[in-house]
Amino acid sequence: MKVAIGIDVGGTAIKGGLVSSKGAVLEKDTIPTQAERGVKHVIERTVSLIQALEKTESADSVNAMALGVGVPGFIRRRQGLVVSSPNLEGWVDVPVVAMLEKATNRQVILDNDANNAALGEYVCGAGQGVRSMVMLTLGTGVGSGLILDGKLWRGANECGGELGHTIVQPDGRRCGCGQSGCLEAYASAESTARRTEELIRQGEASVLKGVLDRGEAITAKMVVDAARTEDALACRIWEDTCRYLALACINVQHTLNPECIVFAGGMSTAGDFLREPVARTVRKLHAERFGMPPEVRIAELGSDAGFIGAALSALRGE
Ligand SMILES: [Zn+2]
């Protein structure tokens, strides 16, 4: 059995594990990132997690093990460089591969966290059994990962698949990227919560008004919970979020025609409450002449997807 170490460096936690080529997790562990203490400290912590995994019982074939590492943000894979990261302050042009190779004596394969998570779901999660899938991660923003004919699609400048910045509403809400009307400005967990807050501040009634009155922020989970109890405003916001996601699915269908679209990230924990209305709207908007629309699925690996995919990427040597 071939085994690799996979590491996922996140803004708050570093996750890692020993993973087989079929995606089975033999060992796993999580430590706090302590990102505020700087790049060198985070790299040292990552090395200590790798060494802890090397010492586990499952690590018999340790010397032959490949090492895959995922970091959020803009990566230059071939140079082994993290150019910048929204979740890791101070990470500018960090030569992660050189640093980790020196400390561990292993060859390191680097990618961004979204690509790793998509590969993980593809091999042993919600994407099993298809040739092509698109994953949309609904968190602070809308991230995406594309697997086409079994391979990750990275694009010419390694920034392919920025589906969060496809426009779903002409002249719509301003997005963090500088455009207006992006999918991310409507259907991320963050923007779903902010849209709700804005309408309550404009005087609309909702059970969530009390949250704002207490000086707290509304979260996407609160919107989902309120919509489940049929709060009229929350229902309307949620319907809109699902409709924008359905529009994105139709656009993805006509660009790539994948067999399935997988929703991941914090907001995907809404499960069928998310999947069913999106799938229904996709079926409604989609013309029969194009065959079956992509199946809408919910991610299965949770926050383990990143390190699982990092290990698989190292095993595949891509
Ligand atoms: Zn945008």
What tags apply to this protein structure?
10 helices; 318 residues; Nucleotidyltransferase, domain 5; 21% strand; 5-stranded mixed sheet; globular; 37% helix; alpha/beta
Brief description of this entry?
By secondary structure, the chain is an alpha/beta fold. Helix content is 37%, strand content 21%.
Elements, N to C (H/E): EEEHEEEEHEHEEEHHHHHEHEH
CATH architecture of the largest domain: 2-Layer Sandwich
**Which homologous superfamily in CATH is the superfamily of the largest domain?**
ATPase, nucleotide binding domain
Helix amount: 25-40%
Q: Cα-atom Rg, whole angstroms? A: 20 Å
| Beta-strand share of residues | 15-25%
Described by strand count, sense and barrel closure, the largest sheet is:
5 strands, mixed
CATH topology of the largest domain: Nucleotidyltransferase, domain 5
Content-based structural category:
alpha/beta
Tally of discrete structural domains:
2
Number of helices: 10
Task: Enumerate the distinct ligands.
Answer: zinc ion
Total strands: 13
- Principal-axis shape equals globular
Q: Which consecutive residue ranges, at least 5 long each, have pLDDT under 50?
A: none
Q: Strand order within the widest sheet?
A: 3-2-1-4-8
First-residue to last-residue Cα separation: 19 Å
Mean pLDDT level? 94
CATH class assignment of the largest domain: Alpha Beta
